[in-house]
Amino acid sequence: MTSPAPAERPGVSPVWLVLTGILSVQLGAAVAKHLFDRVEPTSMVWLRLASSAVVLTAMARPRLRGRSRADWTVAVGFGLALVTMNWAIYQSFSRIPLGLAVTVEFLGPLTLAVVGSRRIRDLAWVVLAGTGVALLGLSRAGVTAAGVG
Question: Which residue, of 1, 23, 53, 94, has the greatest Cβ tally within 10 A?
């Protein structure tokens, strides 16, 4: 027996939500990069995550009571992953050019996509992306091992 399809909820298309999220992340990173002479990267991450939590709480109004220990474990684990990921990329932004940092960040998901792919044409996209990364890295302008790491 199959379960019924979820009810359609009126609202914003998921595509627009994803595009808005991407725009928010990239614009936020570009703005933050120019503020590092006034605010340290770690403080910037704290400000960004705290403001995001306030906005998300105001928009979603999640129910906090009645959650299981497993629910809180997942939420705390996800929060720690977000903090670590944002801290690492902002440390990178402060040490190397923004375009290179974002490109290097993209290599992990690209690698996973390629490993999971079974089509030859996907290899062409990987070669193209790898060429772009190599070209960005060849300039060596401001590239440090700490920034890439």
Answer: 94
Model confidence over 32-91: pLDDT tens digits? 878 888 888 889 889 888 888 888 888 888 888 899 999 999 999 998 998 998 898 888
Question: 3-class SS at 65?
Answer: coil
State how far the Cα of 54 lies from the Cα of 48, in Å rounded to an integer. Answer: 10
Q: What is the dihedral of CA 82, 133, 107, 19, to 10 degrees?
A: 60
Q: Is the CB of residue 96 less than 8 Å from the CB of residue 140?
A: no
Q: Can you tell me whether residue 31 is helix, strand or coil?
A: helix
Token pair for residue 143?
């590239």
CA distances to 35, 94, 101, 106 from 130, in Å: 30, 23, 14, 11
**Residue among 7, 33, 28 at smallest CA distance from 96:** 33
Convert the pLDDT of each residue in 90-122 to its tens digit: 888 888 887 778 777 777 877 887 788 778 887
